[in-house]
Each structure stands twice: as structure tokens, then as C-alpha cells.
């Protein structure tokens, strides 16, 4: 597996290169957005670790240009932990988002998860349109539909569904959803995630025979197309 790290902090870039190499990955490193864009588009990588704040071109610009040509999985790294930044990255085509500082174990787990499931759209599919079974999400027009029927989602429900769909097949804990969608630390007495999932399910699944949003008891939620 070959990974491209685009990171302008030299010490962090070297740390990531060494850690990934020690875990049997082949690693290339770029220290600017311009260099990263060139390598990502011209090279052949299984995954790109992309910093947001870069000289030349920022990570969002690199991601937009990359998505015009390729569908390689992208994990964005950033010190900017606002929900708006994470949403912007996901809407631009990122497959996952990790806020600095992060634990190496978490980074490796996310890298492995992205490589394992591929995080690739179906051939010919526009990277701004996500699909699973009869569900379709248009990230540019911010529209969601099932079997051609429009789903009337709130802004938070759309963000929640985008995250679940980008990581379909992967169980997401309530903590992960709370942190990435609501920018809050999860507390056991807070039921905001359960309420939001229940409302989303009422629009996404209740009117349709096939259910896509599943609860995994004791672990969290997963969006997947299960066999009957």
C-alpha cells in the first residue's frame, strides 16, 4: 500500500513518514499544496493524508483539484476543529477528518479502515454525488433522495447522513458522531445523537421497505445495504 503525506510541518511529516513506514506502508511526502497536488494527481496512491493549512494551495483547494481526476481516499489532517471546517472538507470530497493533535493509534486505525473499505465511488460516479442502494446524496445541491423521492432533511441531518454515507459499512460510535457533527464532547446523559438518528431514520428508512441505517447494540450506528 502506498500513501502520500501532504504536510508542511517538517517534524510532523517526518514522524508520519517513519510511523507509516514502520507499519509496512510505502510513503511519499510533500511539504506544500502545489507539490502535493502534483504528486497526488500524477502518482498512484492508495491513500492521501492531507493537511488543511498548506503553503501554495490549501488542503481544500488540493482536494477539489484531486477530485476532478481521481477518487483516491483522502484523510484530512488539521488543527482547525470547527464543525464548519469538517463539513467543508467532507463536502469537498474528503473521506475522513482527523483533528490535531491526534494519537498515532487513532491515525493508524483510520488509515486501515479507509484502505480496507476502499472509500471509492462506483465507476463513473461523480465524487460530489454519493450513492448507496437507492439512496443518493448530492453534496453540491445539498439534496438527498431515495428511489427518486426527495428527503426533507435539516442541515444537521444532512451532515449526519453525509458522514454516515462516506463511511458506510463502518460502525460509528455516538462519541464520534457527537464530536464530528455537533462539535461537542459526548456525555452519557446527552441524548442528542439518539434523537437525531431517530429523526433521520424516520425520513430515511421508515417510508421504505429496505432499511439502510442500523443500530449496532453497544457500539453505535452503521449505514449499509444489508441482504434481506
TrEMBL record:
One of its GO terms (cellular component) is protein-DNA complex. SMART domains: REC, Trans_reg_C. Residues 127-225 form the OmpR/PhoB-type domain. It comes from the Bacteria. Residues 2-115 form the Response regulatory domain. One of its GO terms (biological process) is regulation of DNA-templated transcription. The modification 4-aspartylphosphate is found at residue 51. Residues 127-225 bind DNA. Pfam families: Response_reg (PF00072), Trans_reg_C (PF00486). One of its GO terms (molecular function) is transcription cis-regulatory region binding. Keywords: Cadmium, DNA-binding, Phosphoprotein, Plasmid, Transcription, Transcription regulation, Two-component regulatory system. PANTHER family: REGULATOR OF RPOS, TWO-COMPONENT RESPONSE REGULATOR. NCBIfam families: cztR_silR_copR. This is Heavy metal response regulator. It comes from Thauera aminoaromatica.
Amino acid at each position: 500500500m502506498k500513501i502520500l503525506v501532504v504536510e508542511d510541518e517538517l517534524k510532523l511529516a517526518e514522524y508520519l513518514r517513519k510511523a507509516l513506514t514502520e507499519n509496512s506502508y510505502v510513503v511519499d511526502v510533500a511539504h506544500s499544496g502545489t507539490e502535493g497536488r502534483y504528486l497526488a494527481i500524477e502518482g498512484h496512491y492508495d491513500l492521501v493524508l492531507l493537511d488543511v493549512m498548506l503553503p501554495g494551495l490549501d488542503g481544500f483547494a488540493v482536494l477539489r483539484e484531486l477530485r476532478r481526476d481521481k477518487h483516491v481516499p483522502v484523510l484530512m489532517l488539521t488543527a482547525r476543529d470547527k464543525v464548519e471546517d469538517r463539513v467543508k472538507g467532507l463536502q469537498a470530497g474528503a473521506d475522513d477528518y482527523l483533528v490535531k493533535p491526534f494519537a498515532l493509534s487513532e491515525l493508524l486505525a483510520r488509515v486501515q479502515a479507509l484502505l480496507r473499505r476502499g472509500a471509492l465511488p462506483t465507476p463513473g460516479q461523480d465524487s460530489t454525488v454519493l450513492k448507496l442502494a437507492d439512496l443518493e446524496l448530492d453534496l453540491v445541491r445539498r439534496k438527498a433522495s431515495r428511489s427518486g423521492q426527495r428527503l426533507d432533511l435539516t442541515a444537521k441531518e444532512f451532515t449526519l447522513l453525509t458522514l454516515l454515507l462516506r463511511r458506510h459499512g463502518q460502525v460509528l460510535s455516538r462519541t464520534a458522531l457527537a464530536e464530528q457533527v455537533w462539535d461537542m464532547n459526548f456525555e452519557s446523559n446527552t441524548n442528542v445523537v439518539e434523537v437525531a438518528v431517530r429523526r433521520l431514520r424516520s425520513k430515511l428508512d421508515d417510508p421504505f421497505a429496505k432499511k439502510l441505517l442500523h443500530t449496532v447494540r453497544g457500539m453505535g450506528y452503521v449505514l449499509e445495504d444489508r441482504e434481506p
